[in-house]
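Let us work through a complete example step by step.
Step 1: write down the sequence.
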Amino acid sequence: MEKQIKNKKRMLLYSIFAIAIGIATILPLSYLTLSVAGETQNTPFFNPTMMYITAIPHTETLYDEPYVTTIYPNGTVIHSEIPDTGSINVCMCYDITPEGANLKNVDAKIEVYNFHFYTDQGSILNMTHSVAIAGSVPDSNSPNGITSAIAEWNSDKNTYTFADGTVYDFTKTLGYVEESVVCYFSTEESTATRGHQIMGGGPVLSESNGEKTAQALTDLRNAETIYVDVTRILQVTYKHPSNPNTSSVIATTPTSNDVLCHIELSELDNMGRAIYENDHRNDHEKFLTIEAPMAFIP
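Step 2: predict the structure and record it as tokens.
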């Protein structure tokens, strides 16, 4: 029975999220002691456009019945109760700017965005999107002599592993992160999509998944209006070692923290969801034809 319930929960999560992002789970090789640059960086690596936000205070409102029915080949009928959960799902388009695409002096760039969900009564939760673009660096062990400057990335640990084995943990700069999504694109992928990167994800909130998550679920359910502020909070660059006797150079720069986007979610639809949707196609086409680079500099 427990296995059946777990399977139903997994099916439930798939029904909530429209975008699935594969995350590589890694075992860190080493951790870097970070030094934060003193000057604020005002030149963005990405040009973000919100595509949609979906907040679901009560998961069970998505269904006609408060349970999932499974009928087995032998005729057995099982009613599995829908877990007491809610969710928040954010999808953003990140167009790479000319500054972000310029990898002439570095081998990888990372930009971190914060999404603060709150009400008139206080904060619900903070989540981050960490977006990276990486070029190729020499690798004598690779068949073609090169490898990606970013070897692995991990949302659970909030880390990137660079080609020299250094693990960058951005929570050592930001502190505790309630929820995060980590994503990486190669220059080849970005060229193929003309710098148009779509990234989504968010937390599933459950009363049984820790005190912070349970409180966030309660705050989400009690909210009459949900406010969302999106800010760019951190930039990171990585320069691969030029030879085995030198070290990589990683620079961490806090950004200006200006609010890039403010959104209000105040009404639930007939399925109990609070939804924000933005048709950004016209803005995207304008960005591609006027501002976006057509090639990347390795």
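Step 3: interpret the result. The first strand starts at residue 30 and ends at 31.
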